[in-house]
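[agent] plan:
  1. take the single chain provided in the ticket
  2. run structure prediction with default settings
  3. attach structure tokens to the ticket
  4. add a short note for the reviewer (M.T.)
[agent] executing step 1
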Amino acid sequence: MPKNSLDAADPMELCGVGLSEGSVREALEALIDEYVRLGYREAQLRRLFADLFYRMPYAIVREVGDAEVARVIRETLARWKVSGQECEG
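[agent] step 2 finished; step 3 output follows
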């Protein structure tokens, strides 16, 4: 049954959370790290951050800029010792 008010004590209540200024950088690093672990490569990650459908990555790239996103992508791929090229297969 629909309800008109939010219940902060309900663990199943869906609610959005904004990011503070310092959290944007941490969110950027965490998102890229997660997608690299899933097998995404540089071109795929760049498309993800440019696509309005993916609201959080899109908002982050608008906040920090394309150059910063590209730099963090390259750093993360290097840290995981992954080539930036697309995988064959």
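[agent] step 4 note for reviewer: Residues 32 and 73 are 6 Å apart (CA to CA).
[agent] ticket updated
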